[in-house]
Amino acid sequence: MVSYTHSGIHTMEELHVFGYGSLMWKPDFHYTTREHGYIRGYQRRFWQSNTEQRGTDQKPGRVATLIKTDAQDCLWGVKFTVKGAKKVAQVLEKLSVREKLLGSYVTITTEFYGKNASPCDVLVYMATERNPLYVGPVSENEDTDLECIADTVVRTRGTAGPNSEYVTRLADYIRKHIPEERDEHLFNLDNKIKNKIYIHEYRHQG
Questions:
Q1: What is the dihedral of CA 168, 169, 172, 174, to 10 degrees?
Q2: What are the catalytic residues?
Q3: pLDDT tens per residue across span 46-64
Q4: Residue 6 pLDDT > 60
Q5: Which terminal residue of the chain has fewer beta carbons within 10 Å of its beta carbon, N or C?
Q6: 51 phi, psi to nearest 5 deg
């Protein structure tokens, strides 16, 4: 697999980045092409705290990370392709701040499977249990865990906006553009958040 290291930033002519969270609907960098597809062996979980873009030190928000699962599990997302050494360097520098410095993510490489092309290596940003912002499940009961996450999300916001926007826009994007994805963790969390927001707004209208 390709190893994307800082030593090769200025000579790399092409970069493939896989987005599974806010990168899908808010990449904030210039790319050449984008393609829907999936990686294998991972699933999306909102087990990573965030104290900058979607929360604060006092009230951390929640953002998506990946957990290792069965090798045949498919996680759908977006592959962004960036071409040209200068643009690749700029994108890697920007993502290093957004994902690593502010988000405490690390990078891995894995294979991406698109609908219309051969598999290729992609760069993926994810959190591990070793980073200080990793939360993990608060309960072995999935519904209890989702309730706790939803309660956190509806009460927090950061420099990029409300934490709820992160979840709901991701869920809406996937429902609209990637019907193949069956992410019950995301969709159930999204439903809980929207219900809590609706109840809050209904009570304040009265």
A1: -110
A2: 99
A3: 999 999 999 999 999 999 9
A4: no
A5: C
A6: -115, 15
